[in-house]
Design a protein that fits this description.
Keywords: Signal. The protein has 185 residues and is mainly beta. The protein is 11% helix and 54% strand. It has one domain (4-183): Lipocalin (Beta Barrel), CATH 2.40.128.110. A hairpin with a 2-residue loop joins strand 9 and strand 10.
């Protein structure tokens, strides 16, 4: 989760030079923030349905981009519906007491044609952790498209660290992000 902000910046960092600093907005209808985790003997998948990205950047100086993403913890829908209430409940995301997951970009570095390395801070349940991950960018017809993913240790964020379910679910959670953003100002 903590790399989502960095993924967004990767996605926007090298937009065509039409203006200096601009505001961008992710389009939730054509974007996805998904997770997968080994649990109960198989891979369980989920998707966050509600999120908002705050992006301010100069395409000529992507290293100075400001990106913050807020994800509604309660918007997680697991493919196995019976797991959704547990995932957003008090022993895991605890969406009632901690309604928002936050991602903040720390840095962005070129890693080859159309590829970048991003570092971001993820905050959940009042705890922070840092992730570094690769991402890819593509630009066409006024849109920027970013894809990438990273692994997150849920225990670092205090997610599901006690109770009987902790033993049945891997600590490693995979976050995959595919975002489309449009310039808004």
């Amino acid at each position: 989760m903590r790399g989502l902000a960095a993924l967004l910046v990767c996605f926007l960092a090298f937009a065509p030079a039409r203006a200096d600093v601009a505001l961008w907005r992710a389009d939730p209808a054509t974007s996805a923030i998904e997770l997968s985790v080994q649990a109960l003997g198989s891979t369980q998948r989920g998707r966050f349905e509600t999120f908002e990205a705050f992006i301010r950047m100069d395409p000529h100086q992507p290293q100075s981009a400001e990106v913050e993403v807020e994800v509604a913890a309660a918007s997680l829908a697991m493919s196995n519906g019976a797991l959704t209430s547990r995932a957003v409940g008090p022993r895991f995301l605890d969406a009632r007491r901690h309604p928002t997951l936050r991602f903040r970009l720390l840095s962005l570095s070129p890693a080859g044609p159309g590829r970048y390395t991003a570092a971001a801070e993820v905050t959940a349940k009042g705890r922070r952790t840092r992730v570094v991950f690769p991402c890819a960018l593509r630009f066409e017809e006024g849109r920027a498209q970013m894809s990438g993913g990273f692994d997150l240790d849920r225990a670092e964020l205090g997610i599901g660290t006690d109770g009987p379910w902790n033993r049945l679910i891997s600590r490693r959670v995979r976050i995959d992000v595919n975002l489309t953003a449009r310039r808004v100002g």
